[in-house]
């Protein structure tokens, strides 16, 4: 089992976590974002969901105005090919997916449309914010 740390690749495009969080959940929502490995992810998934495997993203509402998102960077790196996305874009997608679950959305067409829109917005924000002058 690979336990080497997985990292977001260096580069000039950052992921607009705060903007995405505020767009989906609002300014008053308190969010913890934690990057974990596949061992910790598997433990969380087994404890809270009864599934004995790692999960690329897990989200836990703590109250109406707070929650946590755990993104397993090792599992994400393994699964990004299924979604045909580069690593950084897939991590952004996982964050968006977790946000929408905290918002109360369930898997389905409506959630998928919202994910695509937010992912597109995040890409546009990154290009605009870091463009060469």
From TrEMBL:
Q: Which InterPro entries match?
A: MetalPrtase_cat_dom_sf_prd, YbeY
Q: Name one Pfam family in it.
A: YbeY
Q: Name one GO cellular component term.
A: cytoplasm
Binding locations of Zn(2+): 97, 101, 107
Q: Which GO terms describe its molecular function?
A: metalloendopeptidase activity; RNA endonuclease activity; zinc ion binding
What are the protein's UniProt keywords? Cytoplasm, Endonuclease, Hydrolase, Metal-binding, Nuclease, Ribosome biogenesis, rRNA processing, Zinc
Q: How is the cofactor bound?
A: Binds 1 zinc ion.
What are its E.C. numbers? 3.1.-.-
Q: Where in the cell is it found?
A: Cytoplasm
The kind of enzyme this is, by top-level EC class, is hydrolase
Q: Which cofactor does it need?
A: Zn(2+)
Gene Ontology biological-process entries: rRNA processing
Question: What is the similarity comment for this entry?
Answer: Belongs to the endoribonuclease YbeY family.
Function according to Swiss-Prot or TrEMBL: Single strand-specific metallo-endoribonuclease involved in late-stage 70S ribosome quality control and in maturation of the 3' terminus of the 16S rRNA.
Q: What is this protein called?
A: Endoribonuclease YbeY
Organism, by scientific name, is Candidatus Zambryskibacteria bacterium CG_4_9_14_3_um_filter_42_15
**Which gene is transcribed and translated to give this protein?**
ybeY
């Amino acid at each position: 089992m690979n336990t080497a740390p997985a990292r977001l690749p260096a580069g000039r495009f950052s992921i607009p976590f705060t903007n995405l969080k505020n767009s989906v959940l609002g300014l008053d929502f308190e969010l913890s974002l934690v990057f974990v490995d596949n061992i910790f992810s598997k433990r969380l998934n087994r404890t809270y969901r009864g599934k004995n495997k790692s999960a690329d993203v897990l989200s836990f509402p703590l109250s109406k105005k707070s929650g946590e998102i755990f993104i397993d960077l090792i599992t994400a790196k393994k699964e990004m090919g299924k979604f045909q996305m580069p690593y950084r874009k897939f991590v952004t997608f996982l964050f968006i997916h977790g946000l929408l679950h905290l918002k109360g959305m369930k898997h389905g067409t409506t959630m998928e449309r919202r994910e695509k829109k937010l992912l597109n917005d995040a890409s546009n924000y990154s290009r605009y914010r870091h463009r060469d002058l």
